[in-house]
Amino acid sequence: MSSKTKTVIFLFSLVAAFALLPFILSTYRLGLVTSALILAILAMSANLLLGYLGLASVGQAAFFGVAAYAVAIFTRSVDGAAWSAIGMGLITALAAGVLFGPLAIRTRDIFFLVIMLAFCQILYGVAYSWRTITGGDDGLPGLVRPELIAGISLDTPLGYYIFVVIVFLMITGAFWMLVNSPFGLVLKGIKDSEVRMRALGYNVWLYKYLAFIISALIGGISGVLHAYFYGCPNPADFSLIHSSSALLMVILGGPGTLFGPLVGSLIIVFVRDIVSSITDRWLIVLGLAYVCTVLFFPDGLLGTIGKWAEPKISEVKDQAAASTNTPLEAQSTADTLLPTNPSE
To answer: Residue ranges of region Disordered (predicted)?
Structure first.
């Protein structure tokens, strides 16, 4: 079975699971799944940089928060313009990626981490201090979900869950096509060796810049969904917790895998919910999860499972091939032992 076939089968299984969840889970648990899907999109933006370029980013919350604030500010200025507000949020996140990208991609490794963190903290400071526009530490409460988008009522938890699922599946499909396109293959080549790709004539800077912009756009989509889900963008949207959580989701699920961000997001959101009901210090558990993942699952859960299962599958295939070929080989051996002349 080819990798493409496996991905399609898993995607359809995922659609079936998403369709069944509203009948199984309570409204509260369904809200957790909705939150996990929104954060999975944010983690997908980090996965594009880490899994396909080798750039670990703790600044994805910058695009996440910028888009959330843009939606709230535009909605307050223009009443009833839901699609326009969503478009403004995405354009703002895209613009942030376009403007900051040339500076960020000049660096790599720890320097990329630091500069992305600095960018995020600058925006956090602006959101916290500029009270006339951002509302300061109070944020911008009162953001109401549109009553109707594409025939789906977003006022109810179920309606918004369906909307988020549709957006998530669209982003996942687009992401899969992107990373399996010639563009995605070039990104993988850059991750392996920038020098080699330059020698082959590729404009490494341009490819990294475009990937950074796409990552910013995906992060912005997550921010828009988050803004409508909670209804109150605030400076915490730019916090290190959001960025580090997104990075941890990628590392936990598996960098460079299609569904790794989703797996990591579901684990983090539900573990956080369980632990926070016991103690307020759930960040300690988050840190321990990060350390354990790096130590015991360096390729993430999906990556580790894939590496473990691949030899097993190959072994089963070899055994099946051997059992299939044995009668033929035996017949061939018997034929060589038979005399060629019947009279002999």
So the answer is: 319-344
**DSSP letter string over 30-91?**
HHHHHHHHHHHHHHHHHHHHHHHH----S-HHHHHHHHHHHHHHHHHHSTT-HHHHHHHHHH
Burial 268-307 (b: 16+ CB within 10 A, else e): bbeebeebeeeeeebeebbeebbeebeeebebbbbbeeee
Give tens-digit pLDDT for 258-284.
888 999 899 889 888 888 888 777 778
Predicted confidence (pLDDT) per residue in 4-24, tens digit = 777 788 788 888 898 999 999
> What are the boundaries of each domain within the chain?
3-237
Q: What residues contact residue 67 under an 8 Å CB cut-off, 6+ apart?
A: 89, 90, 92, 93, 219, 220, 221, 222, 223, 224, 227
Q: Rounded to two decimals, what is the model's pTM?
A: 0.85
Percent of the chain with pLDDT over 90: 34
Which residue bears the tokens 């082959």?
200
